[in-house]
């Protein structure tokens, strides 16, 4: 009678834990590199407190963990089996009558846990983290925007707007002698000069306005080269901040910030009126379930790759694993591109990578169980020469 908690199953499962956490930490650090640079800039140049910045970092973690966890699962399975093959433990198991199929249970169990963790990230972590990130980023930017502005310096932090301020009141943040070049309208260039101004935030819509007082607007029509002068007492300019635009979204929730239930409601709402948004939302809905299942597909592929790789070719085995991981996300990117414009069903674009890797992994597993030679044996002479050349160096 088969025992799912046998010594072999427990041993393999526990052996996969250390490389999983090592890979999780390593790939998380890689993903965090860009955020670390942004954080340093916010703390040093914009005087943002460490507490809010750390919270922003925490809120972005679910987004990259949904990609890091499947990758870590694959590398954990692969590195564990490569070590067992290198120590001849796989050979000993086979000599004792243990089939390769027996190794499938702990690998699938480990992959299933990875699937559940990734599913939690895609279904709950990403929508919740994105929403919190957006709100906190707006509050931080509102509180520190004037700190980022410098008097007597041309400031290009705003999209297609150049802002120059002669003086900034350190007590109330009021701007004095404001000069603006507004190039948001391609047909008309606006040059605005105002006596004073103030940056105000709209928490409800999460946008900024530059409220100007007592000034003039010089409008230049680029088609007929005519100009107009407008005098005003109060004038508001909507500002789009580049840093905010790198957040998961501003204003209304985008499809990436929605839960599965919200996506279904949104799809029903725009199905007849906006096909592009419908396909985009459908794509995000499929992605929330397809990415977690990638853990199983990658774990299934890593099993025969680890068992069939020779002891002297561990680096080659890891290289194959990374190659298939990159292939998966290449297929995912292609599926996203074609699924968004409706060229073929979004579900097909999101699930083809899983079916491809999972199907190929199943095929390799059957070959391995039947003791057939590796499909990659034609690369053995190349790998041997590379190892020999590296040894000489």
Automatic annotation (TrEMBL):
GO terms for cellular component: ATP-binding cassette (ABC) transporter complex
GO biological process terms, semicolon-separated: lipopolysaccharide transport; transmembrane transport
Keywords: Cell membrane, Membrane, Transmembrane, Transmembrane helix
Compartments, record wording: Cell membrane
Residues that span the membrane, as ranges: 12-32, 64-82, 103-126, 289-307, 319-338, 344-366
Membrane-related topology note: Multi-pass membrane protein
Coiled-coil stretches: none
Signal peptide positions (record): none
Lineage: superkingdom: Bacteria
Main location: membrane
The protein, known as: LPS export ABC transporter permease LptF
Gene name as annotated: lptF
């Amino acid at each position: 009678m088969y025992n799912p908690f046998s010594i072999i199953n427990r041993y393999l499962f526990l052996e996969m834990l250390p490389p999983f956490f090592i890979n999780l930490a390593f790939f998380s650090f890689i993903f965090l590199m860009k955020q670390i640079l942004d954080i340093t800039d916010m703390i040093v140049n914009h005087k943002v407190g460490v507490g809010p910045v750390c919270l922003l970092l925490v809120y972005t973690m679910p987004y990259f963990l949904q990609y890091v966890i499947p990758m870590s699962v694959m590398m954990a399975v692969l590195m564990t089996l490569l070590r067992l093959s290198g120590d001849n433990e796989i050979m000993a198991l086979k000599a004792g009558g243990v089939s390769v199929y027996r190794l499938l249970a702990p690998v699938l169990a480990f992959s299933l846990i990875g699937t559940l963790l990734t599913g939690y990230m895609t279904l709950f972590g990403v929508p919740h983290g994105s929403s919190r990130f957006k709100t906190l980023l707006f509050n931080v930017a509102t509180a520190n925007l004037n700190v980022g502005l410098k008097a007597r310096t041309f400031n290009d932090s705003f999209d297609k707007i150049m802002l120059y301020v002669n003086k900034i009141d350190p007590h109330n943040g009021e701007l004095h002698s404001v000069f603006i070049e507004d190039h948001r309208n391609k047909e008309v260039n606006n040059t605005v000069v105002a006596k004073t101004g103030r940056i105000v935030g709209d928490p409800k819509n999460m946008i900024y306005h530059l409220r100007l007082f007592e000034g003039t607007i010089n409008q230049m029509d680029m088609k007929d080269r005519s100009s107009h002068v407008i005098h005003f007492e109060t004038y508001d300019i909507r500002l789009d901040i580049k840093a905010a635009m790198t957040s998961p979204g501003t204003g209304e929730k985008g499809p990436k910030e929605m839960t599965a239930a919200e996506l279904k409601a949104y799809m029903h709402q725009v199905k007849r009126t906006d096909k592009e948004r419908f396909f985009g939302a459908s794509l995000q809905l499929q992605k929330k379930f397809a990415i977690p299942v990638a853990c199983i597909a990658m774990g299934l592929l890593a099993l025969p790759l680890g068992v069939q790789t020779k002891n002297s070719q561990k680096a080659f085995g890891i290289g194959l694993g990374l190659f298939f991981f990159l292939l998966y996300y290449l297929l995912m990117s292609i599926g996203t591109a074609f699924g968004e414009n409706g060229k073929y069903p979004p579900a097909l674009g999101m699930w083809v990578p899983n079916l491809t890797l999972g199907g190929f992994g199943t095929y390799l597993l059957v070959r391995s169980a039947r003791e057939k030679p590796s499909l990659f044996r034609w690369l053995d002479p190349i790998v041997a020469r590379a190892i020999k050349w590296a040894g000489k160096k």
